[in-house]
Amino acid sequence: MSSLNERVARLYAEHLNLGLARLMKFAGLEAVESHAEGVWVYDHDGNRYLDFLGGFGALNFGHRHPTIVAAVKNQLDKMPLSSRVLFNEVQAELAAQLAALTPGDLRFCFFCHSGAEAVEACLKFARLATGRAKIVAMQNAYHGKTLGALSASGREVYRKPFEPLLGWFVHVPFGDADALAQVVDEETAAVLVEPIQGEGGVIVPPDDFLPTVRKLCDQVGALLIADEVQTGLGRTGKNFAVEHWQVAPDLMALAKSLGGGIMPLGAAMGTQKVFEPLFDDPLLHSSTLGGNPLACAAGLAALQVLQKERLAERAAEMGDLLMTKLRQVQSEFAELVTEVRGKGLLIGVEFADADIALLTAAGMLQRRVLTAYTLNNPCVIRLEPPLIVQPEHIDLAVNALVESLQQVRQLLSVLR
Question: The pTM is what?
Answer without folding.
Answer: 0.96
